[in-house]
Design goal:
Blueprint: H1 4-18, E1 33-34, E2 42-43, E3 50-55, H2 56-59, H3 69-72, E4 78-81, E5 91-94, E6 109-112, E7 115-116, E8 134-141, E9 154-160, E10 168-176, E11 180-191, E12 194-205, E13 214-225, E14 231-246, H4 253-258, H5 277-280, E15 284-300, E16 303-319, E17 336-356, E18 359-379, E19 382-383, E20 386-387, E21 393-414, E22 417-434, E23 444-462, E24 465-476, H6 480-483, E25 499-512, E26 516-528, E27 531-537, E28 540-545, E29 548-561, E30 566-579, E31 598-607, E32 613-622, E33 639-652, E34 655-664, E35 672-675, E36 685-687, E37 692-702
Parallel strand pairs: 6-9
Antiparallel strand pairs: 1-2, 3-8, 4-5, 6-7, 8-9, 10-11, 10-37, 11-12, 12-13, 13-14, 14-15, 15-16, 16-17, 17-18, 18-21, 19-20, 21-22, 22-23, 23-24, 24-25, 25-26, 26-29, 27-28, 29-30, 30-31, 31-32, 32-33, 33-34, 34-37, 35-36
């Protein structure tokens, strides 16, 4: 076991190796300012945590700005698997947390402009991030994430632009392989103390895989103003709409080998030629997500008061696939999910700054409240011999989730030392009111609560070298999606326990001159009662508690600016994630499914001195993925792919023009992009795109 003092010793040895290269210099690169972790503006170099910032330039570096995976692939410790399935969102895991999610994001806290994009049960949707207006994305991993409470194996926080300067209007269009198109139009500006940003976009694709077409409409409005001295008020409204987004489902290994684009054929289909499960049941999902939020911030001398309020509505209807052999459990739920969710919440915190013992102490006291209410129904997905239609009612209930989290965080800095500590008590209540009683009464309630403390120490060896160590307790309660089914499609699983974990980390942050920065972190996480997939079929997944798991790894980020506009970026992760104690028929030492052992992103980029032209080549390398707990089924093989991008921009009078060309998977490698963990029918595999291209252009007019 890697004990905290052992991790610190390794970090010290690493620092000794770096120290001869790191000398005090007047030419030190500017610090990146972050708010994640400390909740106040802080130089990331001086934060005792693994945190990376993806800036606006990288988010828009020759990309569609549709999937968070486009930008976050370059972050160590983070694995984002693009399913090529817009009905199920991305698979995002941080140090292995979240890898088992059947759809959506769990185990990682998602935040947008200070407003949670994660529901109170811990389930989030990365699709609600507006990447067109993104200013930066902060990614926090490790013990410090515990201050965000339940489901904080990591934190991904998006900050959008604020209206500044003269009014401007911009339109952009992107087109590419598989009839991909995206059109975006936005306007921004500032008049007096009022800033505004307005954005609207439409994305469409026929899909790479069979039955994977999608259309997504997004709208975004942000208004900022200063009602009085030293205050700021921000209003944000967002809308995401996807109608009948097709779900291609997973395929078995042989099907993937024969045709990566194909969907799995349903052998019970009576048509000739036989249709796939996805086509026969017309598997699809429609999403309508609307949200409003407001944040008020008031500075009172050195102190600051912040209040965030938000609320919204999310409506989803999803058509799943079940073979006739799996129709018995439909009596508990049905093959059509239809829910209408209202949610709202608030976060109030006070930041106090004072001098203490020849140092500066910053203390944050806060209270976080969230509530969601689902009117949820389930229907059979057939009428007579016709499948993929809404049939008889099989489920009707009200699902309530309420969370209340008080938290305290303090940081003391004096000389070369920085000490940080925090405590959060999370309590989540789940209540089910069953209105469909012909198959039994699933009404009930369950409470989950845990206190998550953390402690961190940073020592400034020199102005260009920092060492730190940190430790924390964390926990993950089951999400609603994990509670919905017990066994093979039964009713609510109120017996699920929350998973509890202990995190330790040690790291070094070094700057070599003005052009080089190196961040390294070693970590260990021990978890008991890990939530794992029990069975998964046709889009329905049930869960159970395993025994103990162990995650040990190292992350490395390297950035170097060379002469003549050349730069390099490297993000590397090595992770050993295993079951540390046997459970069921799973022996000790088996790898956690969906978690690669190694991940690597490398980039060599160039930009001319006038910033008119830029180009880059990217390399992405990943090791194999096991699709289930026993590791006996064929793993998705490791892969290495290369991408290239070329961009240009011009200014003419009041106009600003940009163009780019991107080619992904340049060598046309065939590989599995993601796996559906634990699928009972062994339809684990979801193919990634072959060679594909994007062509984009934008024009902005400044008034």
């Amino acid at each position: 076991m890697l004990r905290p003092h052992y991790l610190q010793s390794i970090a010290t040895l690493l620092a000794v190796g770096i120290s001869p290269l790191v000398a005090a210099t007047d030419n030190v690169p500017m610090d990146v300012i972050v708010v994640s972790g400390s909740r106040v503006e802080h130089a990331s170099f001086d934060l005792p945590a693994a945190i990376d910032v993806v800036d606006h330039a990288r988010i828009g570096a020759g990309q569609m700005r549709v999937n968070a995976s486009e930008a976050l692939t370059a972050v160590p410790g983070l694995v984002i698997l693009n399913r090529q399935n817009y009905a199920q969102d991305l698979q995002i895991s941080s140090r292995g947390f979240g890898a088992r999610s059947a759809f959506g994001v769990r185990g990682i806290r998602l935040i947008s402009d200070g407003i949670p994009a994660t529901m109170p049960d811990g389930q989030g949707q990365a699709a609600t991030f507006n990447l067109d207006m993104a200013e930066r994305i902060e990614v926090l991993r490790g013990p410090l994430a515990a201050i965000y409470g339940n489901h904080s194996g990591g934190v991904i926080q998006l900050m959008t632009k604020e209206g500044q300067g003269a009014p401007s209007v911009e339109t952009s269009i992107v087109a590419g392989s598989d009839d991909v198109t995206k059109i975006d139009i936005n306007a921004q500006g500032k008049s007096g103390a009022i800033g505004y940003v307005v954005d609207s976009s439409r994305f469409q694709t026929d899909g790479y895989r069979t039955h994977s077409a999608a259309t997504r409409d997004e709208d975004f409005v942000k208004i900022t103003l200063a009602p009085w001295s030293k205050s700021k008020l921000t209003f944000i409204a967002t809308k995401l709409y996807q109608a009948d987004t097709q779900d291609p489902l997973g395929v078995q290994w042989l099907t993937f080998q024969n045709n990566p684009r194909a969907a799995e054929i349903d052998s019970s289909d009576t048509q000739i030629p036989k249709r796939s499960f996805a086509e026969r049941y017309n598997t699809r999902k429609s999403i309508d997500h609307e949200q409003l939020g407001a944040t008020y911030e008031q500075h009172l001398g050195e102190d600051r008061l912040r209040l965030t309020l938000y609320g919204g509505n999310r409506q989803v209807i999803q058509y799943q696939a079940f073979s006739k052999a799996f129709q018995t459990p439909i009596s508990h739920s049905g093959g059509v999910i239809d829910f209408d969710r209202n949610f709202y919440g608030a976060d109030l915190n006070w930041v106090n700054l004072r001098t203490l013992a020849r140092g500066t102490m910053t203390t944050t006291v806060g209270l976080d409240y969230a509530r969601s209410s689902d009117a949820r129904q389930g229907f059979e997905n057939f009428i007579g011999t016709q499948f993929g239609v809404k049939g008889k009612l099989r489920r009707d209930e009200q699902d309530l989730v309420v969370s209340l989290d008080p938290y305290l965080q303090t940081e003391w800095q004096a000389g070369a030392w920085l000490l940080s500590a925090g405590l959060r008590h999370s309590k989540m209540e789940v209540e089910v009111r069953d209105h469909f009683l012909s198959n039994g009464n699933d009404s009930g309630s369950r409470n989950y609560s845990h206190t998550t403390p953390f402690l961190a120490v940073l020592y400034k060896v020199s102005p260009t070298l920092n060492l730190y160590t940190s430790a924390a307790h964390g926990f993950e309660s089951p999400t609603l999606n994990e509670l919905f089914y017990s066994g093979s499609g039964g009713g609510f699983n109120f017996n699920l326990q929350s998973a509890q974990s202990t995190h330790v980390e040690a790291g070094a942050k070094a700057r070599i001159g003005a052009d080089t920065q190196i961040n390294a972190a070693l970590f260990e996480v021990r978890t008991k009662d890990e939530l794992v997939v029990d069975s998964s079929s046709g889009g329905r997944t049930s869960y159970r508690n395993a025994s103990k798991t162990l995650r040990q790894g190292i992350e490395l980020a390297f950035n170097q600016s060379w002469c003549n506009g050349i730069s390099t970026h490297l993000a590397a992760t090595a992770l050993r994630a295993v079951y540390d104690q046997a459970f069921g028929n799973i022996p000790t030492g088996r790898r956690l499914p969906g978690v690669p052992g190694t991940n690597l992103y490398g980039e060599l980029a160039w930009q001319d001195s006038a910033e008119h032209f830029n180009a880059a080549i990217e390399a992405i390398v990943s090791s194999k993925l096991y699709p289930e707990d026993s590791n006996k089924e064929t793993p998705a093989p490791g892969y290495a792919i290369a991408n290239i991008r070329v961009g240009a921009k011009q200014n003419w009078s009041s106009w600003r023009f940009k163009q780019f060309v991107r080619v992904n998977n340049l060598l046309d490698r065939t590989y599995v992009g993601s796996v559906i963990v634990g699928d009972s029918n062994k339809r684990y595999y979801e193919a990634a795109l072959g060679r594909n291209w994007l062509l984009g252009a934008s024009a902005q007019y400044v008034f």
